[in-house]
UniProtKB/TrEMBL annotation:
This is TLDc domain-containing protein. Residues 207-375 form the TLDc domain. SMART domains: TLDc (SM00584). It comes from the Eukaryota. Pfam families: TLD.
């Protein structure tokens, strides 16, 4: 295979190659041989266009990835040694090493300063890649961009850049972006990053859950939970009715995604890993989380500070057990709560999810409420096979 079997002079290659098993190394050699043969370089190098096609990205993010993998030589010759060194860091490195690689990757200009325009280009390309639409709306890009902070001074420039810590914080708030970026050199393992949204009876223009929002929420979930999401309740179709809501979601056999748009125009909600069932106290587990979708997009996972995860009060007469649904905090001072009248609620900061106030103010007045049922991959098939088994007995 030519260059792929030549001895390495770079000590980084010697170190990186030890991270791979014999089988993994064989797979890497096969991958290099395949990509190099497509590059029309007599099997010696991988071209820029072939690497971009392999990773699935076409714009400046793909150019930057090629520069990083070729160690910024600018010679348009991606060798087997380059591939091993890059994958050794990208796939086998520590969390810090991988984050440092991604941090440099997002600096698409390659000038050592990750500024707002760099991140904007990255987000735009990600959304165009995962979306079924040809172009991303500016508002869609801005919700993810506005979740980032740029706190580092740039010498000779009034524009601040994103520090490494800023980048890690942003990656924590927008885990879908990090998940996307960590799969560019192993696209065959990525699968679909956007759940299929099933909503036969509702015009998609009425839905709060846009495709990019589903991708954002899905960034905090496992691959299995990115199968089908089915609309269970929508206030524009079903009315702002708590009883109808509870009746509709009782058919859910898995987790649910609750989304609220209030009269201030803010959009936010929570992922409930457990069914919404009548309880006189908090319940649930650490798989649940809160999220913001507009005017900026962020995920807030449980901190472990307490077990005040889900709340579902139905037909209680005590003031200490408020009727409605919520997440986190404490009774009457939730991180997110919608009263059983479905006409008001509140959102407060709290230790449960370490979230800010999710709306413009603490008091919220819902305009639209919708809820989706998460159908994990393989669930429908298992269910159908189970029914077949019952019929055969």
């Amino acid at each position: 295979m030519g260059n792929a079997q030549s001895p390495a002079a770079d000590p980084r290659f010697t170190s990186a190659i030890r991270a791979f098993s014999e089988k993994e190394l064989g797979d890497l050699k096969s991958l290099f041989a395949s990509l190099a043969s497509q590059s029309q370089t007599e099997g010696k190098y991988i071209s820029l266009s072939v690497l971009k096609a392999y990773s699935g990205i076409k714009g400046p993010l793909g150019d930057r990835l090629y520069d990083l993998v070729t160690q910024n030589r600018k010679d348009q010759k991606l060798t087997f040694e380059d591939l091993v060194i890059a994958k050794g860091t990208y796939e086998k490195g520590t969390r810090d090493e991988i984050d440092e690689f991604l941090y440099q990757l997002c600096d698409v200009n390659g000038d050592g300063n990750l500024v707002r325009s760099d991140l904007e280009a990255v987000i735009s390309e990600i959304l165009e890649t995962i979306s079924s639409h040809k172009t991303s709306e500016p508002s869609s890009i801005s919700v993810f961009l506005d979740a980032a902070n740029f706190t580092e001074d740039n010498e000779g420039s009034p524009e601040k850049s994103m520090s490494f810590e800023d980048f890690r914080n942003w990656s924590h708030l927008v885990p879908s972006a990090r998940k996307f970026l960590t799969k560019l050199l192993k696209p065959s393992s990525s699968g679909s990053q956007v759940p299929q949204l099933i909503h036969q009876d509702i015009d998609s223009n009425m839905l709060l859950l846009k495709e990019e929002y589903a991708w954002h929420i899905g960034g905090a979930l496992s691959h299995q939970e990115l199968g089908e999401w089915r609309i269970l309740y929508h206030s524009s179709l079903n009315g702002l009715s708590f009883n109808t809501f509870m009746g509709n979601i009782s058919h859910a056999e898995g987790p649910t995604v609750l989304i609220i748009k209030d009269k201030e125009g803010y959009i936010y909600g929570g992922y409930a890993s457990q069914p919404w069932e009548r309880h006189a106290d908090f319940y649930g587990d650490m798989k649940s989380f809160l999220f913001q979708l507009y005017p900026k997009a962020s995920i807030y996972r449980p901190t472990g500070a307490n077990n005040s995860i889900q709340w579902c009060g139905v037909n209680f007469s005590s003031d200490s057990i408020p009727n409605g649904i919520g997440f986190g905090g404490r009774a009457n001072h939730f991180n997110l709560f919608i009263s059983a009248n479905f006409d008001s609620g509140h959102t407060f900061t709290g230790a449960t999810f370490n979230n800010p106030c999710l709306s413009k103010s603490n008091l919220i007045y819902p305009e639209v409420i919708e809820c989706w049922g998460v159908v994990p991959k393989g669930f429908q098939q298992d269910k159908q096979e189970g029914l077949k088994g019952c019929l055969c007995n």
